Each structure stands twice: as structure tokens, then as C-alpha cells.
Amino acid sequence: MERERHILVVFPHPDDEVGVAATLARHIANGTPVTYVCLTLGEMGRNMGIPPFANRVSLPQIRKKELEESCRAIGITDLRMMGLHDKTVEFEDQEKLIERLGAIVAETNPSLVITFYPGYSVHPDHDACGAAVIKTIERIPADRRPKVYCVAFARGCEEVIGQPDIFYEVGEFADQKIGAFRAHISQTQYAWNGKSMDDLRATFKRERMWTYRFEK
Predict the structure, then answer these.
(1) Which residues are paired to 210 by β-bridges?
(2) Which terminus of the chain has fewer Cβ atoms in its 10 Å neighbourhood, N or C?
(3) Residues sharing a CB contact under 8 Å with residue 91, sequence separation 6 or more, in sequence order
């Protein structure tokens, strides 16, 4: 794994980082600093725990604490919460959002940015987040742009954008990934309740991403 100068991760919801948790843990173990910008607190999440322990009023603060715990499991120490409203990222003033993201890019000077692939990430917030990140990076002169890796999982996306070109084996960082997954108990308990760590290690094997290729 190539050592990066700094990695900037931008996702819209608490728990989105789980998809690349082992990748991030591996980079952190390799000495690369990671900044995670989470756009919302996921206050419109569908799940409330099993049995329910959250409601619409309490869920944002619960998810905030879960996000912080997930970051501790991965090893992320620089977490930024932007405070946008869940399920409305596409309706935000895009110029203001790009300006805010641009300021963080200028501050952190990443060599790698990780986000969602716009148009191929299922949830409108995912796509809007990825689109804003891409527009932010596009404004940087081509010879100074960081690499951008994108997560995509829309059905049939490989037929349009090709096969993913970034693969990381979870391997020795499975426990960090599981820790991040289980930290989001309000949203993920249904998926791991009653399963052993070995069961979960067998589930989490590989993380994949696409390199975003900008127009010249």
C-alpha cells in the first residue's frame, strides 16, 4: 500500500465509513493521517435499535456518539461533522457546500480523497455528496489535484463505469472494521445480533473502490 500524505474522507452519513474502514485502518497503521468529514448526523435513519431505544428526537445525538465510537475503532482522530440535514444534501446550496469542502481540502492538503461515486451510489445523499466532492476537486489545477477514490454499489454499475480498480483485503484489519460496524448499533444491530466475531470476519473480506478520472 502506497503511503499517502493525508487522506480526506467525505461521506454524508454516520456508518458510511464502515465500507472503507479496513482501508483507512491500514493507512493509519502505515502512518497516514486521516480526516473524516461527515455531512449529516443521519437523523432520518430508518432503524431505532433492537428493541427500539431511539426516537426521532434522540436519534441524532445517538448517531453522533456511534460515529465517534466508530472512528475510535478505526483509529480516526480528526472527525469533522458538517451539520447538514439528512436526506437533503441534494437541496443544499451547492456553491456554499463546495466552498466549505474546498476550505477543508486547502487546510488538509490531501494526496487522496475518498467519497461516493456520483450517480452510482444508490442514495440521493450519497450521489450529491460525491458530486460536490468531485466539483470541489475539479477546481484545483490538474497538476495539483489529489487522487479521488470512489465507492459505488448501484446495481449494474460495473457495466457503466467498469470494474473497480482498487482492492484492499480486510485481513488483519477485520477487527477494526467490525468494531466500526458494531459501533453503529442503532442502525446495524439487526445484521450482527447473535453472530460471533468469526462469523463477521467471514463476512468482511475485501473493500473495493474506483479511481475517478477527471476530464482533461
Answers:
(1) 150
(2) C
(3) none
Cell, residue 105: 481540502
Of 120, 119, 118, residue with least CA distance to 134 = 118
| More reliable by pLDDT, 202 or 37 | 37
Residue carrying C-alpha cell 480528526:
78
- Note the pLDDT of residue 215: 84
CA distance 106 to 168: 28
Q: Are 211 and 165 in contact (CB under 8 A)?
A: yes
Question: Which domains are seen in the chain, by residue range?
Answer: 7-211 (3.40.50.10320)
Q: Are strands 7-11 and 78-84 parallel, antiparallel or unpaired?
A: unpaired
Concatenated DSSP letters of 134-174: HHHHHTS-GGGPPEEEEE---TTHHHHH-S--EEEE-GGGH
Beta strand 147-151 with 112-116 is: parallel
Tell me which residue of 88, 92, 45 sits closest to 67, measured CA to CA. Answer: 45
